[in-house]
Each structure stands twice: as structure tokens, then as C-alpha cells.
Amino acid sequence: MLLVVLEHERGTLGEAAQQALTVGRGLAEQMGVPLGGALIGDDDAGLVAEAGAYGAETVSTVVHEVLADFGPEAWGEAVAELVRRLEPAAVLAGGSERGNEVMAQAAARLDLPLVANCLDIRPGTGAGEWTMTRQQWGGSLLEDARLRSERPLLTTGLHTVTAERAQSGSEPVAEAVAVDLDASLARTMVKDRVVLEAGVTLSTAPVVIGGGRGVGSAEAFAPLEELAKVLGGRVGCSRAVTNNGWRPHSDQVGQTGTRITPEVYIASGISGAIQHWVGAKASKHILAINTDPEANMVVKADWAVIADLHEMIPAITAELRRRA
């Protein structure tokens, strides 16, 4: 069996879990083993069914009072206990912050190797031999690695694949697994949630209008806000903008900011430093507006307009309103 740890939040299967199941489905087929899911802290039938829609043939559920909410230590021990009992050929999870933390906990408890943020995973012809390509430095460096392990623990690079439901997805077999977890594992656990921002956020917006140093000032972001409002999106910015105090850090797109996945990212006046590109590269399409045709963002974008953003942004807004 190939076991996929299913990240979830309040009854919803996370995007990281969907991506991990998509990768795991192909890998399980290649290995000739069934695909199983590990549902920690919940046995909701809807979550089990959704895992089946992405190809899971079985789902092992673990419910315990220590697992009342997310906690990396408790989740890590629960995963470790499942691995001890099920003895899967490999364990996979999505490469989110939670996924990487839980898998690190499980790996330490099992004394097994963990390879994080994999883009490509290839089981070798020999027993326990694996090769993989993984991303380092936020995706700016790709590393080819070899691993020898009878039971590797792996995480997939977040947003490096598109989650796809299985063509023949079916209702998986759900099995409740009882585990004995010490109460001390609850010392690190989510106790409460505070909604900092309602509605469309930078990480969930279908359209993001990004502004860089070329915008010129905090006040000059007003046309970008107007365009974002027309498109039902959000305004983001580069690190240079936050360093200048024009926008809050919560608006920053990049390796040290928010990683975005919109349908369209309009990057205006942004040179495209590698740190910013790491946060923006998962966008489905990128339109760059810049006066420099050699700017990194222009070169990497799907489309580019070589023009002054102060003329183009209002013109786009006016045309959209005319066509509405």
C-alpha cells in the first residue's frame, strides 16, 4: 500500500491533500500497490468519500480526544502508529506547512528518512531504491536525490501539480483504527481561531493585481485597487513595496510573503526577483506590465505589455467597465 496523509480543516479536504492523492494515485499504479488514505482526527463520511473521488481505495480513520484539533505532535504520533500497523510501501503527504511538520514528526518517531517538497518521485528497480527531484530555496533550485529506504516518507511540492479526481473514483473502504496517545501530545495544539480577514483573500483570490517599486508611492496603488474591485480580485505587492512602507506585509507576494494561485496575476511595475517569482509562479496565467522588456517578470510571463502601468491599469479598468 501507498499511504497518503490527508490534511483537512473543519470537514474539508485540503488542496494539499488533493494534490498528494493525485500524485499518489499515479505512483501507486506505477508500483502496483493499492492507494490508501490516513484521516487523522476525523471520521466524517464526506471526507472519506472525497478521498475516494481522488483515488483512495481504503481510508484509515484515527479519532482520539488528543486529536480534537490539529496538533503536530499528536498527528505525527498517530501517523507513526498507522505506519507501524499498516506497513505501507511509502507514505506521502502534501508539502504544506502542516504536511511537512507532521511528516517530520512521524519520521523522527519511526526513525525513517523524510524527503520533502518532491516534484517527481521514481521508485527504483531494486528493493528500497528511490530517486526524486525536489525543490529547494522556495523552488529556485532543483535537486536530484537518491534514497535507499524500505519505507520512505515523502511530501509533494505544494502547487506543483493540479489536483485531479480519479476517472473511476469509488467509495473507499473505511477502517477505524484505535490508537493509544499520551495526553502530553496535546501540548502543541490549535486551541482557537480568529478570522483576520473575511471574504476573498490574497491566497484565494481568482485574480491578483500586483504592484512593485514601479508604482511609485502608496497613493499610486489606488488604480490597482480599482481594477481589483472590477475583477473581483485582490491587490498584492513586492517586497520592495512593503520595505518602503507603501503596503502592509500581509499584501506581499513572495517567498517570505503569500504564495498565490490565481487564474490571472497581473504584475505591474515588478522586476520579478526570484523571491517574488517563487510566490507568484503557481499562478495559472501571468500578465506583466513593465517599461523594461528585459525584466525577469516580463521574460517569464505568459503575456507582457511594454508600457507605463500608470496608463495601462486605468485603461484596462475603463475598458472592462465599458464592456460590463
Low-pLDDT residue spans:
none
- Tell me, rounded to a whole number, the average pLDDT: 93
What strand line-up does the widest sheet have?
9-8-7-10-6-1-4-5-11
Strand content: 25-35%
The CATH superfamily of the largest domain appears as HUPs
Query: Helical region count?
Result: 9
Q: What structural class do you assign from the helix and strand content?
A: alpha/beta
Descriptive key words:
324 residues; alpha/beta; Rossmann fold; 2 domains; 9-stranded mixed sheet; 30% helix; 25% strand
In short:
The chain is 30% helix and 25% strand.
Any chance you could write out the topology, listing elements then pairs?
Layout: E1 2-5, E2 8-9, E3 12-13, H1 15-31, E4 35-40, H2 45-53, E5 58-62, H3 72-86, E6 90-94, H4 97-110, E7 114-123, E8 129-136, E9 141-148, E10 153-156, E11 173-176, E12 207-211, H5 222-231, E13 234-237, H6 239-243, E14 264-268, H7 274-280, E15 285-290, H8 296-300, E16 303-306, H9 309-323
Parallel strand pairs: 1-4, 1-6, 4-5, 5-11, 6-10, 7-10, 12-13, 12-14, 14-15, 15-16
Antiparallel strand pairs: 2-3, 7-8, 8-9
Helix pairs in contact: 3-4, 5-9
